[in-house]
Structure formats: C-alpha cells, structure tokens
Amino acid sequence: MSSIIKIAGRGVPLRGNDIDTDRIIPARFLRCVTFDGLGEHAFADDRSQLKAAGQLHPFSNPEYAGASVLVVGSNFGCGSSREHAPQSLQKWGVRAIIGESFAEIFFNNNIAIGVPCLSLSAADIDSLQGLIEDKPMLEVEIDLAAGSVIAADFSFKIKMPEAARQMFVRGQWDATGQLLTNLGKVRTRAAQIPYLNKFTP
Amino acid sequence: MSRGTLFDKVWKLHSIDQLEGGQTQLFIGLHLIHEVTSPQAFAMLRELDLKVAFPGNTLATVDHIVPTEDQTRPFADSLAEEMLQALEENTAASGIQLYNVGSGKQGVVHIIAPELGLTQPGMTVACGDSHTATHGAFGAVSFGIGTSQVRDVLATQTLAMDPLKVRRVEVNGALSSGVFAKDVILHIIRHLGVKGGAGYAYEFAGTCIDAMTMEERMTICNMAIEGGARCGYINPDQTTFDYLRGREFAPQGDIWQQAEDWWRNIASDSDADYDDLVIFDAAEISPTLTWGITPGQALGLDETLPAIENYAVDEQDLIRQAYDYMDLKPGQSMLGLPIDVVFIGSCTNGRLSDLREVAKICELHGGKVPTQIKTVVVPGSEAVKAAAEAEGLDQIFIKHGFDWRNAGCSMCLAMNPDKLVGRQICASTSNRNFKGRQGSPAGRTLLMSPAMAALTALEGKISDVRPLLHKEVQS
Ligand code: SF4
C-alpha cells in the first residue's frame, strides 16, 4: 500500500456550502455496475443548469481542466452514502479535496479510495479559492507530513483528524489488508456474539 | 466521554481490534445489500481474488431501480435490468439470500429487514445506503457505508470505524393531534441543523419517543442521517419485543426469553453518561414541512417563511439559493401553496401505519384528488402491499383518486421510471429535498408526514390536517 504525502496540482474552486452527493452525481448516473465513466458526469445537473443560464460551472470551465485539488465550502458531500460521488470526482481528476468541513460518510469513502479531505477555516478557504480564481494556473501543494497547503506566497495549516492523516502518510488508508489479517479473530468473536449463537450464555 | 450507553456496549462487544491507523475494526452482525452500491464491491472482491466471508450474515434485495408499474422481466430499462442481473449473479455465486421481486419479501431494504425480524437489538448493521440509520429503532447500531466498505464487509464481515460521541436527544410529553413522528424528526433536524450531528450517534429518548410504535420509531431513526449523525438509535423496550415476537427471523421458542433478557441488558444504563444532551418539548411541535433544499430548511405550518437575515451570515447564501430554487419568498405562508405531485412511500414513511394514515385522511375528507395532480402511493415492501390490500386500503386509495403501485424506492430518488418533470413541485413523505432529488434536475420537493401529504393531494395545495382530525374527534 502506497503512502500519500505530497499532492501538487492546479486547483478548482467550488463555492457554496452543503453540496450533497446528489449534486455531485445525480441518481440517474447510478444506473451502472461499474464506476467507469462517472468522471464526465460529475456535477452534471449543476453544469447544465449554469450553462443554460449563460454561466460556467468550475467543472466545465476550461481554465480548470486538468486540475486535481478541489477546494470547497462546508459540509461538502452530505446526503446519500453513494461512493459514486467520490469516485466521479476522482475519475474527473481530483486527487485531494480541501474544504471547510465534510460529511462523515463522504470523508470515509474518500479515505477508502485514497483521496485525502483536508480542512481549512472558512476565511482560509475563501482566500485559497480567491487565489485560484485569480490565477487558475497556480500550483497548489499539499504536504500531509508537514500538515500544510502552499499556494503562491501563502501557506495554510491544514486540519485533519490525526488518524486519517497518519493513514495516508503511512500508506494505511486502504484498511482491507489489515481487516483481512484479523479474519481469525473475527471468526472467534463471531462465535461469542450472543445473537449469532442462540443467546446461549 | 460516554459510558454505559447502548452505543458503548454494542461497540465494545463488536470491537475486534485497534487498527494501525487508529480506527476500530468492528464486527457487523447484519449486512444488507442492494443493486446500486454492491456490484462494484463484488467486482473489487473478484479483483482481489477474495470470497464473501460470512454469506449467511448478508441479505440482499432489489429496491432502488425496480419499476412500480410493469415489473415483467427483462425490465424496460436495460440498465436497471443489468443491475438486477448483476445482483442475481453475485448473490447466487456467493451463497447470499436474495429477496427478489415477486418473492413476497422484496422491498426497500430498510423496510424488509425489520419486518422479517432480522434487525434486532444490540446488533451492528451495515448497508451501502445512508438510511441504514433506520435499524437503530430496534436498538441496533447501524451504519450507512460506501462501496469500498461494502467490499470490506463482504470480505471480512468487519468495518474500520472511528469512534463516535453519543448525544441523547430527548423528546418529552405528548404530541398534539395532527402531529406525527415525521414532524418530530423534521423539528429536531431543523433545530439541531443538518450538520449538528457530525461525530455523534444520536440516542433518541424521552416519554414521547417511548410512547411511539416501532414504525414511528423507524421514521425517527431513518432521518438521523439527515441531521448529520452517523447513526441514531432508540433503546429496546417492551414495544420493541412485542413487535419482534413471532417474526420470521426473530428468536423462537425457548431462546426467546434469553434473547429478551440480553436485549434488556444491552439498553443504556439508567446512570449512563452522555457527551451531550438536548431536550425537546413534544407539545411545541406543530405539523412541519420543509420548504427549501436541505432537510433542515423546515418550518411549522403556523409559521411564515423566515427572513434571510434571521440566518447566520455564512448560511445566508444557501438560504437565498433555496428561495431562488423553490421560487418562494420570505414572509410567505406554505399553507395553500399549490402542488403538482404527491409521493407517498419510501423507507421513511412507506410502512403499513403510514398507509393507514393516508386512508384515514381520504375517508375523513371524502373527496377525490383533482385530476391535474399526479399521485403515487408506493408500499415499502411486497409484504406491506399485501397487508394493505388485505385491509382494503388499496380500494380506498383508488376510490379517492390515488395511484396505487408496487413496492420499491420509486420517487424517493427516482432511479426508476417514477420522476418529477421540469419544475414540478412535489409533496413527498420521503427524506431528502435536495435539488433534483426526485428525478428532474429542476424539480422541487417538500418533505412532510403521510397525513399532510394525503390531504395536500386531495386539496391540491398544502393543507393542515388538524381541523379535519379535530372534526373527527368531535363527531
Ligand atoms: S426509499 Fe429512498 S432513502 Fe430509502 S433506501 Fe430507497 S432511495 Fe434510499
């Protein structure tokens, strides 16, 4: 399992709070048996609605094509637990998300696919989004070991639950291997759980 | 830190190990899967050359994509058909029980597990679906998970989880007539916020919750996730045991008493410590509905829509967006607002008692749904459908102009043919009012109780059930 410490790339700012997973990937795109091809549908409805209104969603804006650091507001990824949402962002090119806060299931789904979600204060998010909007070609550098984000002359201190940060730094973000190692213990425990064993004491 | 709560006890019982990353490896007693979030998980297993470790602890059904009108196979929607076929193949290959359409046991996953007696107190439950919180009504600790985690549960019957704090949410006193469990949970979310529950398990308690039936408790726990909580639960009591007794997968015969003793012990201790406590007065809750684009944007029917300045500065943008999207204005009343569509169903309100409430409103009102209003009444499961038809509820619905359908998720998220069109506005008993949730990117959703939705259908506009119910009491 590979560690994820430094992520550098151009940013894509997405303003607004409480953006739910139905926005990220509308339900009709969940009619599929693989995650392939979800990237092009990320924010499909927001994109087409803005387009109809003569505006450009950041994910449709050619200035942000090829960006890999998504910068969002608070409670990002709330609602449905669909992993299709982080998968579609990852397939679009997102390798890390910086936001004010994240919904928990979404946060965990991102860990499971190796996309760190980092937090900054609302004011820092605003500045970072502003910096990227001014200079879309700007390189945003995340260093999980140092706990920092650097963009132009600015350096921000990231907040992230220590356990999650360590998982990326040490390359333990994919827990499946560890879970499998304990399969013996799991079977032993299963034999002791009352409701799986006719409640015999 | 919490101590002595049901959550703490269940967590401890199911903890296998502390993982290197700091998370806990948690055993999952009951794993539920459906066609939307499992095919990729099975594909990942195949890639890793892994087998399903405990197929007997997993149950599958198909709910999100099933059409509620013509269910003949192959489904008209080839993508839906492909998804069901994948589920059929995956479950058959790994020895997992599938309750398929026509089995008599198919339905929304969070409806069938409780009605079969599979969901029991003290269990851990996981499902690749956020409304897994529903199972907490039985005193189970239940988590909605993503597809990679579905893979983990299939491969190991465990999950890597972060510990949670426990907040006790008490609702005390009696509800007024015309106020239902749905109003209670919308009221709670409105006051604690859609992110208020982050990092918490919610323990719902208090005399109002104690007095609720299991079906009402499921409505409450179902929407814990909408309040940002990772899970919600209610301590098991006599109501829980009475509901479970005699159900197919509930303990039978001699072991029943042992089970009941164990269940009583797994409930939170009377001197348990909580990380937080919030108390609501049931008498203060009025019929409540959402008006905006998050489940927290709700108001009582007696109120008028709030001024944008009433909200914290960082929320005002979202409120403005909500007004724009919904085409509503501050100061306006929701009462009397014309609607286009009424959806009755979902894992929040698709159970028999919900349908009975709808039928009752139909009979008290006596009228017929105006022809321009589209209605869809979708039972939560094949068993709910059969029970409703045995009582003649379907005939009442049809007589009053409602469209009676087959079981599934239907217009709760519109992955099947039931969808809003254009800017239609829908009175819905489901749980999410996000933009575009009901299938039209511009469609609008108002969440409410089945009774309010029923009367709203009959009147063609948002209506208050209290005068109607009041008349009933007097006559
Ligand atoms: S009824 Fe709605 S919320 Fe419940 S499982 Fe189905 S789609 Fe999800």
Brief digest:
The complex is a heterodimer of chains A (201) and B (475). Chain A has 201 residues and is α/β, with parallel strands linked by helices.
CATH T-level topology of chain A: Aconitase, domain 4
* Alpha-beta content class of chain A: alpha/beta
Strand order of the largest sheet of chain A: 4-3-2-1-5-6-7
Q: Count the DSSP helices of chain A.
A: 8
**Count of DSSP helices of chain B?**
17
Question: What would the average pLDDT of chain B be, to the nearest integer?
Answer: 97
CATH class bucket of the largest domain in chain B = Alpha Beta
Full CATH superfamily name of the largest domain in chain B: Aconitase, domain 3
Residue stretches of chain A low in confidence (pLDDT < 50, at least 5 long) are none
Which oligomerization state do the chains in this entry correspond to? heterodimer
Protein described:
- The complex is a heterodimer of chains A (201) and B (475).
- By secondary structure, chain A is of the alpha/beta class.
- Helix content of chain A is 33%, strand content 15%.
- Chain A has a seven-stranded mixed beta sheet with strand order 4-3-2-1-5-6-7.
- In chain A, a hairpin with a 4-residue loop joins strand 5 and strand 6.
- By secondary structure, chain B is α/β, with parallel strands linked by helices.
- In chain B, the strands form five sheets. A five-stranded parallel beta sheet of chain B has the order 5-4-3-6-7.
- At the A-B interface, helix 2, helix 3, helix 4, helix 6 and helix 7 of A face helix 2, helix 3, helix 5, strand 8 and helix 10 of B.
- Bound molecules: iron/sulfur cluster.
- Iron/sulfur cluster binds next to helix 12 of chain B.
